[in-house]
Specification:
The chain is an alpha/beta fold. It contains 14 helices and 18 strands. The strands form five sheets. It has a five-stranded parallel beta sheet with strand order 4-3-2-5-6. It has a five-stranded parallel beta sheet with strand order 16-15-14-17-18, with helices on one face. Strands 10-9-8-11 form a four-stranded parallel beta sheet, covered by helices on one side.
Length: 403
């Protein structure tokens, strides 16, 4: 019997396969490099532009004249070549792709390491470099070594103030940042069904923080309902009695609010242990936790109160922003004293819109806290939205209360 990665890629673990790609995407950073490589190959006409997407999300709006010029060139190419294009303000590539594009059983590649996010739909989704992406643009296909699979067996349900992000930090801590290198993580067990699609996107997103090639959920009734809202038909996937390389057991009832402390994602402490840590900034957003469900939880805590520290909220897409406006969620966030930036990656990569100064400390709902990532000399702690909301009100890292 086969793992889901083996089923989608059509070969056993360890085999090398050539596969047609169902959809491929790059962003404003990697797209520039992919286009440069494509031109060096001498490719003038794309054979399958309908399979390709170019999504501006990393430095939007442009922060310098150089950035603007590079984006203008890429924008012209996207429009002339027939590539699907999402301009600045449309949202983060992984979120945009989750809004009615990716379906179960697809092979998805993106020129960004967090492409594994889209494994939440039962697709094989993985990141690649810009030069490899140029080859996909030129041919519509790529090669894979089918990964061995580690099962993350989830039992029970999350309780108290724990969120899927806390679960993500917990499994990263268990596996370590190199513990699943070139493996696929398969989230299975009765606990998987109780996690929302937004939560599954968060869990799949952080698979790469263990070195994994992919992080995959089996498509089930929740997946089918989610895609139906976008007018897409999908079928469920049934797990088989397959052989995993190893199994990591997690009882969801044991998960509590957690914080990853500088400067490693797998250095994780209970929020209680680091409560009271000074903060200069709280950042809510990114491809990990900038979805509507996240903004709702954040607004629920800050509604009618004022944040005590500089707080930046960045919706993951225009659709998320529009929904937050329509439902009053965004008004609650703004009235609490938070700044709201256009949909995109914001300060996550340390290039734009919220970079830290020397010695400043940020609590972020992002997926990485590496040294100097959000600004030279800054320190980054990672947490769930609930912990970020409680901390924004307190002005220091705080433990969220049970909703």
């Amino acid at each position: 019997m086969s793992t889901l990665s083996e089923r989608v890629l059509g070969a056993p673990a360890g085999a090398y396969v050539d596969r047609e790609v169902d959809v491929a995407f790059a962003h404003d950073g990697t797209g520039v490099l992919a286009l440069e490589a494509l031109r060096a190959m001498g490719v003038e006409r794309l054979p399958y532009p309908e399979r390709l997407r170019l999504i501006f999300d990393h430095i939007v709006p442009a922060n310098t004249g150089t950035t603007a010029t590079l984006q203008a060139e890429l924008r012209r190419y996207a429009r002339s070549s027939g590539i699907g294009f999402s301009d600045a303000g449309g949202g983060i590539c992984h979120q945009v792709m989750s809004e009615g594009v990716v379906r179960p059983g697809m092979v998805v590649v993106g020129a960004d390491s967090h492409t594994c996010t889209l494994g939440a739909f039962g697709a094989f989704a993985t990141g690649m470099g810009a030069t490899d992406m140029a080859a996909v643009w030129a041919s519509g296909a790529t090669w894979f070594r089918v990964p061995e699979t580690i099962a993350v067996n989830l039992a029970g349900r999350l309780s108290c103030a724990a969120e899927p992000k806390d679960l993500a930090l917990a499994y990263v801590a268990k596996l370590g940042m190199e513990g699943a290198t070139y493996r696929a993580l398969e989230f299975v067990g009765d606990g998987a069904a109780g996690i929302s699609m937004d939560g599954r996107l968060t869990l799949s997103n952080m698979a790469v923080e263990t070195g994994a090639k992919a992080g995959i959920f089996y498509a089930d009734a929740a997946t089918v309902r989610y895609l139906a809202d976008y007018g897409l038909a999908a079928a469920s996937q049934t797990p088989e009695d397959c052989r995993y390389e190893r199994t990591v057991e997690i009882d969801l009832a044991d998960i509590v609010p957690l914080v990853a402390v500088p400067h490693r994602v797998d250095t994780v402490r209970e929020a209680e242990e680091v409560a009271g840590t000074h903060l200069d900034q709280v950042f809510v957003g990114t491809c990990t936790n900038g979805r509507y469900e996240d903004l709702v939880r954040f607004a629920r805590t800050v509604r009618g109160r004022k944040v005590a520290v500089r707080t930046l909220v960045v919706p993951a897409s225009r659709a998320v922003l529009a929904r937050a406006i329509a439902t009053g969620v965004l008004a609650d966030i703004v009235e609490a004293g938070c700044m709201v930036a256009p949909p995109g990656c914001g300060p996550c990569l340390g290039a734009h819109a919220g970079v830290l100064g020397e010695g400043e400390v940020c609590l972020s709902t992002a997926n990485r806290n590496f040294r100097n990532r959000m600004g030279v000399g800054g320190e980054i702690y990672l947490s769930s939205v609930a912990t970020a909301a409680a901390s924004a009100i307190a002005g220091v890292i705080a433990v969220p209360k049970v909703a």
